[in-house]
Design a protein that fits this description.
By secondary structure, the protein is of the alpha+beta class. It contains four helices and 14 strands. The chain has an eight-stranded antiparallel β-sheet, with no helix packed on it. Strands 1-14-12 form a three-stranded antiparallel β-sheet, with no helix packed on it. The two termini are 34 Å apart.
Length: 221
């Protein structure tokens, strides 16, 4: 229950708490530079403080109250939509949707449906550029399988990128997530792969920009 309360509070913070360990020292350093009269360095500190706050921002999202929808788990650009064989976790044919997050996108991840976390697996790996397709298999990643009340299963994979070196996942096996609820984040440029049953009808296209917890990826049959 205590862990659940912490996660719900995280949903309300304007900045992800993981960003505070970067932001607070930078703000303190910037103040010290100003006190010492090192104006040029102080302005650099202000710029970096603003960038850190911007990167770890947690904007409010309007979660669509519609039936049978799949929401985007992340902010970013759609780089892949198509059917494939997912042979590591679900071990069946799926519809794969990949979202690339640049350093300018919100990096908080949200649940695309309401459901229970059936399984969570961390896989160490490389740090290739996340927009490259082979990063789906080779990069460091965290896999989460969600199941709805009617046994509809989806697979979410958080993938670290060339700059990203830290994947955060608050959700634990057995947790219940609400649609649009924050479950983790990835620091700096990264990617999220979403594997859905093939009967899902996608409404996104490659190149489209989506918002986590707000944009609709597709509809269940």
């Amino acid at each position: 229950m205590a862990q659940r309360e912490k996660v719900m509070k995280q949903n309300r913070w304007p900045i992800a708490k993981e960003g505070l360990s970067f932001l607070i020292p930078m703000v303190v350093l910037t103040i010290l530079l100003g006190i010492l009269g090192w104006t040029a360095w102080m302005y650099l500190g202000i710029f970096l403080s603003l960038f850190i706050a911007y990167f770890f921002r947690n904007p409010r999202r309007e979660i669509p109250n519609l039936q049978n929808i799949i929401l985007s788990p992340a902010d970013g650009r759609i780089i892949h939509v198509g059917e494939c064989e997912e042979d590591r976790f679900l071990k069946k044919k799926t519809l794969k949707v990949s979202i690339f997050m640049s350093i300018f996108d919100v990096h908080i991840n949200r649940a695309p449906v309401s459901g229970r976390v059936l399984e969570r697996n961390y896989l160490p790996g490389r740090f290739l550029v996340a927009s490259v397709e082979k990063s789906s298999l080779l990069n460091e990643q965290n896999a989460v399988i969600l199941e709805t009340e009617d046994r509809f299963k989806i697979l979410l994979i958080q993938i670290a990128g060339f700059v990203a070196r830290r994947i955060v996942c608050y959700a634990k096996t057995g947790d219940l997530l609400r649609k649009g609820e924050i479950f983790g984040l990835i620091r700096f440029g990264s990617r999220v792969d979403l594997y859905l049953p093939p009967e899902v009808k996608p409404i996104v296209r490659v190149g489209q920009h989506v918002k986590g917890g707000e944009s609709i990826i597709g509809y269940r049959a």
